[in-house]
Design goal:
single chain; alpha/beta; Rossmann fold; 2 domains; 6-stranded mixed beta sheet; 4-stranded parallel beta sheet; 13% strand; binds pyridoxal-5'-phosphate; threonine biosynthesis; TrpB-like_PALP; chloroplast; pyridoxal phosphate
Length: 455
Amino acid sequence: MANSGSHRQHKFSARYVPFSPNDPSDEEYSLDDVIYRSRDGKLLDVQHDMDALKEFDGQYWRNLFDSRFGKTAWPYGSGVWSKKEWVLPEIEDSDIVSFFEGNSNLFWAERFGKEVLHMHDLWVKQCGISHTGSFKDLGMTVLVSQVNRLRKMGKPIVAVGCASTGDTSAALSAYCVAVGIPAIVFLPANKISLAQLVQPIANGALVLSLNTDFDGCMRVVKEVTSKLPIYLANSLNSLRLEGQKTAAIEICQQFDWKAPDWVIVPGGNLGNIYAFYKGFYMCKELGLTECMPRLVCAQAANANPLYLYYQSGWKDYKSVKAKATYASAIQIGDPVSIDRAVYALKSCNGIVEEATEEELMDAAALADQRGMLTCPHTGVALAALIKLRKKGIISATHRTVVVSTAHGLKFTQSKIAYHSGMISDFTCKFANPPIEVNADVESVMGVLKEKLPLA
Ligand SMILES: *Cc1c(COP(=O)(O)O)cnc(C)c1O
């Protein structure tokens, strides 16, 4: 019987290596180094000692992870840290900063699946039901825990900073304030939702509102963090992806360790599509599951450099100037993790799809009217699914998981705009505006007689 202490004596380890899967080098760094890129500027990847992990079989890991699911033993009650050996094996439990994130529910989207898509095995992984309302919590617990460890070791880190389209800054601020590390967030002025802006403000972060877009904030934060002892928390930082990947492991776990056929993830900076790939890959490689799902990265048509690259047959990559999109967390034209995403998609026979503003808002409304409350990014993923069903690529019997990345309540402004028909670019087909009625029974009865299927 597995228990969390049974392999205490065993030495699992991880290190940074340049992200270069097809051309591995000897270059490597300790996770206790403060470093974001390799000598020649490549992204880094956290590489686990797979041989050490493979000394235990799939059944061992399944039992171990299942034994920790949803309990309170520190830190394993977290969906991320219940997979600690696969995430940051060497960190002390006492250095971990966690809100017991993860363990999010997998919702059977029965009515939406049947009515809109004619499919019966559609699931939505509700990653947005989380401490700060988005799946960014999964990665931030890992990054802030490691920074906490580095500070205790005496490394000169005075604060942690990030550029953000909203959710990263909310997560960073919450995890930092929980352990008393100063957080600095660089936000594009007027490009994030009020619910996103209020979080770092309330959590006491230093909030810098810059008159530019996300890509502009990113350029500034990179320079500032190279000049001052501020730790860079953007998803360029490979630590976060180690936490994000646990959502994929959890999906397998929730299906009793069977990988689904398809997983659809909305993509902006493109760290997450790689993180999901890595989670599914580790499950298969370490014998917990038998196969890999095919991944779909769903982009907003207004910020679609990966989609255009995919359409060119992976021949012609250009960053784009991202245009405004309701899916504001993925309004990114120059994604830092482009190489990671391309590797992930090629390795699992993946697909890239896109959704226009009308398509993503209509898909979100259709889903909301069948039991969900979706954010616009989830709308992008649902719209992509609708298209892939129409094209016959995803079939009626395929088990499909849509990753819902943020809570719908973070995006009330765009929902209100849609339902009051205040969007001039398209018709808002499924709008459900409130009806103003005089406060007397006769007027109310008049409306009810018109609206209800009364005999
Ligand atoms: C960050 C984020 C994404 C996209 O993740 P990337 O790694 O940037 O591709 C999607 N949806 C929401 C709500 C996010 O916050």
